[in-house]
Amino acid sequence: MKPRPCGCKGCRTCLICENQYGAAGLKLSLDKNKSYVYCPLCAKAWSGWDTNLYKEHPNHEGHSIEFPGVFILLDFITQEEENDLMTCIDEVPWDTSQSGRRKQNYGPKTNFKKKKLVLGKFDGFPQFSKYIQDRFNCVDLLEGYEVIEQCSLEYDPNKGASIDPHIDDCWVWGERIVTVNCLSDTALTMTPYKGDQSKYNLACAKEYPPTVLADGRIDLNYKSNEPSIFETSKPKEDRDVIVRIPMIRRSLAVLYGEPRYHWEHCVLREDIPERRVCIAYREFTPTYMANSSIGDEIRSQAKHFWDHTNKNNV
Tell me: the pLDDT tens digits for 222-271? Predict the structure, then answer.
């Protein structure tokens, strides 16, 4: 089905196509009584729905659960850096996307259904964002992280922006999913995934080992005889709960392990009260790191940064 002028297609909608074309918005049924809010300060999830509950730390009330595989670093960028970053981002043309979003995507051309990857027009990243990638080197969990895709996503409340529950593709994108959150607070809403492993190429996660080991160390050496990340990251118990992860302004968030492979994440329309822009980063899977000539070509191109004001490579 062709995208509508707003960018939505299929079952995905925004306020524009819901109002102009009578498209029925997707109503996600969530039992808020089963919800827990992750606290980045104690690394536990506490019963409740409002993601501002983390601000009660250390005086949490109610029941808590463990939710491994989440890392949040507050104040990853300063307010001045955020202002400068957003000025530069808005100087680059935005492309329409689905569900009320706009995007600026820098990365190789991917076909997840056919498992095809080509360089396409990928020529590296804008120079104004280089310091963010450089700063990853100061985060232990991001040891050896090689950015292969960088995508700015804008969520506009006037368009009813959101993103449906999903798992990031597991054939080409690796374990550590990184996001830098700008302009306003929001939340990732996590729900357990019990569906077909062919969806999201989830079965591919049975073909490579974990990058983040159980003790927190990073292992970038691909070993085909090691237990897969899909198996080692399985939840220790089957829980019928929702976990809400605060995406705090100017923070860095990393998903890995269990929430990366066994939970879907979404951004609800109700959690976008103000304009929000996130910068999402992806790395290759270990199999692409180890055995792909096109992967090597893309990794080489990803080391280039260019001036967005004249598009000359530097």
Answer: 888 899 999 999 998 899 999 999 999 999 999 999 999 999 999 999 99
Residues present in the chain in total: 314
The token pair at 202 is 């989830």
Is the confidence at residue 282, as pLDDT, over 70?
Answer: yes
Q: Where do the domains of the chain lie?
A: 36-306
> In angstroms, rounded to a whole number, what is the distance separating the alpha carbons of residues 282 and 264?
17
Which is the CATH superfamily of the domain at 36-306?
Alpha-ketoglutarate-dependent dioxygenase AlkB-like (2.60.120.590)
